[in-house]
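retry 2 of 3: previous attempt timed out while embedding zinc ion. Reduced batch size to 1 and resubmitted. Inputs unchanged:
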Amino acid sequence: MGEEIRIEIESKNKGYPIFIGNSTSALIQKFIEENHKNKKVGIITDDNIKSLYENTISKSLNHLSPYLISIPAGEKNKTRETKERIEDMLLEKKYSRDTIIIAFGGGVIGDLTGFVASTYNRGISIIHVPTTLLAMVDSSIGGKTGVDTKYGKNLIGTIHQPDAVFIDLNFLNSLPKEEFLNGMSEIIKIAITSDKELFEFIEKNSKEILEKEENTLLYIIKRSIELKKEIIERDEEESGLRQTLNFGHTFGHAFENYSEYKIKHGFCISRGIAVESKISVLTENLKREEEKRIVSLLDKFSLPNKINEDINPNKIIDIMKVDKKTRNQKPRFVILKEIGRIKTKNKDFSFEIKEDIIKKAIETPK
Ligand code: ADP
Ligand code: ZN
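retry 2 succeeded.
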């Protein structure tokens, strides 16, 4: 691949470019030199990524003399305490408002670093360099930041748009398979709700995707970002459209909580996709054949879509009722009409579903 791809996120408040390529370090350097001249540069990463890419960073970004801060890897470190530690390290070195931070890592680093950037000196610039598939197509785009607490995930955070996002497909080569599949779940989700063509492309090219064939990956990543872009941009006018992104997440988030966060997000979402497709069938919106196609696509990527019999549906439903996206304690679901199209009614993009239907969808074998 030669030229990099540039996608512009437009927003009333602050737009930003997303670059996709396979050697983006020169671009990052150029972007910072042009737009953030003379700023100090801090890079926040985790220990795994540091040990894999420390040499690459010091070679490619040496002109910027970055200060590299690394934290232990894993969701359990996405906390207020870690945020404070990073802040103290920056303060100790007298990093001022004239600082640009690079979030170099997966979703954990992106969310945490975004939160640091949004409050440090009342807000400094950040660029995202996502290194997991999930972060490339989902968490690095849209400006959500946050940390977890014992009360739940992402309950404390801000919206802080980055100055740019740089996606380098090379990072996927070192990504463990499980993490790769974790990201595929969000790609499949957005295809199901918004783009039948992308869904069919993934169906036909599953082998190439699993082999990380470059042009195939490039296409699905680019397309997923374009779809998310459309949704978040249109959401500025049509409030609520963003809920489309929540397909599979009402059940998925509850299941994540039920499993005490021991199961990765993407593997909870894949179960959520199966349950919420079933709800779409039971409410006579989606054809059974389409549901079968969805489940077999999840199977192709070994994404779990069965709910074990020993799972207590009532408990999961109780968790759904207190989710922050519920209205009046009633869980709401994005409903599919067909692959690539969701149900909308009077500007509503999610719907209350009767408890017996939710329960049946959880219990019915797929
Ligand atoms: P997510 O992006 O799914 O939110 P994390 O930020 O927790 O997840 O990253 C998942 C794991 O993958 C972490 O252990 C992280 O250190 C590791 N990781 C991230 N990017 C890479 C990469 N490009 N190569 C290898 N391991 C990576
Ligand atoms: Zn998600």
